Amino acid sequence: MKLLVILISNKMDKLLISNIQNLKKQMNLLIPKCEIDYAGISSEDDFINYEEYITFKYKFVNPKKQISKLNDFISNFEDKNYDWYIKIRPEVYLLEPINLNCLVKGSINGRARKYEGCKEVPYGISVGGSGPWRNIYDVKFNDIKEFIELDDQIFIFDNTSINLNAFSNLHNYLTGFEIQNETIQTNIWLSNNAKLNIIPINMILDYRDGRQMWSGHIKFN
Prior knowledge:
alpha/beta, Spore Coat Polysaccharide Biosynthesis Protein SpsA, Chain A, 8-stranded mixed beta sheet, 3-stranded antiparallel beta sheet, globular
């Protein structure tokens, strides 16, 4: 299996080097063992800050925001010989390897930021902390319909999603928006009829100011 890890940020911050070291460690622990390449997309030519720890096969300077950075990369990237693409930000500190068996081809796979439905997914939501399983404000039970808003910190997709135009016409949807958050990202995917799949990702979001947010669980009592 061949993976491309796409590290995207406005800058490759030296304060987050420990996250990058851990990223490489967790990628090397994946089962099955994978061939892994790294791509870096930054607003500045500052890739050297991380190159002691990971080797960037591809490096792109792009001053745009997160979703636009990724869209430009996908639009111009010609090497489609990867089984999976993992989009990730330097703020992510993985606590364990990603379970590749949870991935669904033709879907965008990631944690939920908001969820309405009847699934139960440990480490499946981006808020909620590391305490006991519980309902939290971004989760609602509904056994008839399902709504997913995916987190934008880390998500995984394959060539099927690209070929089904999950990332197409992005600039049409971004017109007039100054921010590119989870809601806008999800609206783009839903407008392109993309499928969304919640997977468990046990991680900490490690902000530059010292704040931390742990993955929560989706569970209904």
